Amino acid sequence: MTYTVAIVGTGANPDNPNADGFAMAYRHARAYERLDNCRIVACADIITENAREFADVFDIPAGNVYEDYEQMLKDVEPDIVSVCVPPVVHADIVIGCARSDVVQAIHCEKPMAKTWEECREMVRVCDEHGVQLTFNHQRRFGGPFRKAKQLLDSGEIGDLQRIDVGGPNLYDYGSHLFDMCGYFTDQTPAEWVMAQIDYSEENLQFGVHNENNAIAQWRYEDGVFGTASTGDDSTMNCEMRLVGSEGTIEIGVGDGTALRMRTDGGWKTQDTNGDSIHGPKPGLVGSAVKLAGERLSFLPTDRLLPSAPSFIDRAIEDVVAALDEDRKPELAAENALQGTELIFACWESARRRGRVDLPLDIDSNPLEEMVNAGEILTAPPTAE
């Protein structure tokens, strides 16, 4: 079956030197272009010139370029919609697409949404309308992470006892890390969370507050513990650490190693099939062709050496295949919901100054509420 695809939130062309953001719509579109059973037919963006430029790049008819995504849904009735807007408006658009009753699948960027209530409501409405909802936690398809899961499942480090994660923050970057925790624990539910945060300097990313530093601990129902350390003063020397009864696996080590394991001796680097933690790495031939292309603009480097599929390419391929095969996708919304609950629970624990038992019994964004109430400093205190 061939699926028609529409993009909401094109953003600016990444080839434009004045563009900001990560051009996620362009990455999604290139992933759909790789698939024989997908055809990009429409796009929408509140900045019309961005939508028009996107349409030019991906050969979308001028009549299928919209400012209003709801009008696009009525006119075009796409099978699949990729939502690439900032997270503060994820819920409104995802719910609107689901309630249109013309969309079969929605693939949304991460993090899920601005509040815990919005996260749950997106999943509920899509379930109610029979819409496949996925979130773009593409690291599940990366070589270092899949190899680590293979090593863990085969018992190379014994029984999993603890997962440690470290990164810039709990929410924006951390959504990937918490999602991977779910991946490595086979989506085992967590029982409780305990955390503390620092927010001494304003840190807004795509309209959502992110703490400056955090320390967190949580426990899964099977007894496995998790810890997180975020910010410039993170205690981690890697992005993820799997601690087992007989060894340790580290992913994204500070020295550039993608994956290493230690059991009864020193660290041993593991084969990740050419992938770093962020995507496929070009080999010697690929690097040479890329360099030649930069120096000789007329050289058709994409035909000389087609690029390996990115993690997003692989993720969207599974999203479409799951729809086609009527099965649960690897990036299913309930998986994202489980990881996101830990994020909001960390902030709620900091607000309560104590342990938070799960499931989480709030609807709001605790960090935003603390900032708005003046309970957290948003600037360093002035010395008198």
Automatic annotation (TrEMBL):
Stretches assigned to coiled coil: none
InterPro entries: Gfo/Idh/MocA-like_OxRdtase_C (IPR004104), Gfo/Idh/MocA-like_OxRdtase_N (IPR000683), Gfo/Idh/MocA_Oxidoreductase (IPR052515), NAD(P)-bd_dom_sf (IPR036291)
Pfam families: GFO_IDH_MocA, GFO_IDH_MocA_C
Residues of the Gfo/Idh/MocA-like oxidoreductase C-terminal domain: 167-358
GO molecular function: nucleotide binding
Gfo/Idh/MocA-like oxidoreductase N-terminal domain sequence ranges: 23-137
Protein's UniProt name: Predicted dehydrogenase
Species annotation: Halogranum rubrum
